[in-house]
Design a protein that fits this description.
It is a single chain. The protein has one domain: Rossmann fold. The chain contains 4 helices and 6 strands. The longest helix has 15 residues. It starts with a strand and ends in a 9-residue tail after the last helix.
């Protein structure tokens, strides 16, 4: 089965993975016709904690709402920074809350456990795969060697590059692909 990877970077790790139909900016995920579970990585700069400093393209914010609609209709997983304002605007359940009317729920992860050099707190909105059917979530010993941005928690760690902030660690990409493969929805939105 193919998984549609929507809003991937042009140099995405998914392009080297079997079973991934990758839609980057050149392929334009807005033209995807559906029919498969998705892994969605919509741009986050218009939704994140630092959004007041972001300069997104005019149409960029709408891409996340389109990604939510595709995940709800076809099943899959959407990845965004923890505390993204997308959760409030799209009425997505917060981590630990009951599933929404689409059967979607939110898992909080740290990308460090998937090989990222920074902690990178992330929320995953999942539709079509209950928590007990997820592949095991890895845990990695140690502490991050870098941070996304300097903070009181990490005042002296070096920050990662913009590209590294945006890239999905290979282990996380493989795990998200497995999650999407376990998501079952029909085109009418029923699990």
């Amino acid at each position: 089965m193919q998984v549609a990877v929507l809003f991937a970077r042009a140099d995405s790790i998914y392009k080297s993975m079997t079973g991934c139909d990758v839609w980057d900016i050149d392929r334009d995920a807005r033209t995807w016709n559906g029919g498969a579970p998705v892994v969605a990585h919509p741009p986050c700069r218009a939704w994140g904690r630092m959004r007041q400093f972001a300069k997104p393209r005019d149409d960029e914010k709408a891409l996340a709402l389109l990604a939510v609609a595709h995940v709800r209709r076809f099943g899959g997983v959407l990845e965004h920074p923890a505390h993204s304002s997308l959760w409030r605007v799209a009425a997505l359940p917060l981590p630990g809350e009951f599933p929404d009317g689409h059967g979607g729920w939110t898992l909080a992860i740290e990308q460090f456990h998937f090989g990222h050099r920074a902690e990178k707190a992330t929320w995953l909105y999942i539709v079509g795969c209950p928590p007990d059917a997820l592949p095991p979530v890895p845990t990695r010993p140690g502490r991050p060697t870098h941070c996304i941005r300097a903070s009181k928690r990490y005042p002296r760690l070096p920050t990662v590059t913009k590209a590294e902030r945006e890239r999905t660690p290979p282990a996380l990409a493989r795990w998200l692909h497995l999650v999407a493969l376990r998501c079952r929805k029909d085109e009418g939105g029923n699990g």
